[in-house]
Design a protein that fits this description.
about 190 residues, alpha/beta, 4-stranded mixed β-sheet, about 20% helix
Length: about 190
């Protein structure tokens, strides 16, 4: 019997058209929504372990928060997910052997109906640099590319040395107190 890993992440996004969103995510995730109510849909995914909900509210849709994504365990899984996404006509671009976010990765990207970009990637190894083409793409203000590199103007600031600090809280498998989300919001 398979057990669900906890804690697992929950994401809630505002969308402009729930029907288009459900159609897209059913194809992208390869499974139907777990719950659909007026103005609301939720998927509970085992792989990746994620609970994601969509609230139809066109006035609150914002597309400039970055991107979402998930790492797969094997190249074979990436190839399978890519084939399924291609068949559904979802793939915007593919990158093989790219050095982005200081890591060598193979990946593909899709955009949902509101422009939320998803990255599905296989991590090969850490890298000490980002591919220089990302800087050129940022300098040209291309909206079709995403990476962790900042625009050149922001990089002119003296570099700050960052270190990894311990987390402010510990993630434990023990159950926690009642959810901070009230049941009236539809999150449960």
């Amino acid at each position: 019997m398979k057990t669900t890993p906890f804690p697992r992440m929950h994401v809630s996004l505002y969308v402009s058209n729930l029907t288009a969103t459900v159609n897209f995510y059913t194809a992208f995730f390869g499974q139907p929504a777990t719950k659909i109510k007026p103005g609301y849909a939720k998927y509970i995914l085992e792989q990746p372990s994620l609970i994601i909900s969509f609230v139809e509210n066109p006035q609150r849709v914002q597309s400039h928060f970055g991107h979402l994504g998930f790492q797969v365990e094997t190249v074979a899984e990436l190839e399978h997910r890519l084939a399924v996404a291609r068949e559904a006509g979802l793939v915007n671009r593919e990158e093989v052997g790219t050095s982005c976010c200081y890591a060598k990765q193979d990946k593909f990207w899709v955009n949902d109906p509101d422009g939320v970009e998803w990255e599905v990637y296989y991590f090969h190894e850490d890298a000490e640099f980002n591919d220089p083409r990302y800087q050129a793409e940022y300098d040209q203000a291309s909206e079709s590319t995403q990476c962790c590199i900042a625009p050149a103007a922001k990089q002119a600031v003296a570099e700050e040395v960052l270190t990894t600090a311990p987390m402010a809280f510990t993630i434990t498998p023990e159950p926690v107190a009642a959810s901070a989300c009230s049941t009236s919001c539809g999150c449960a």
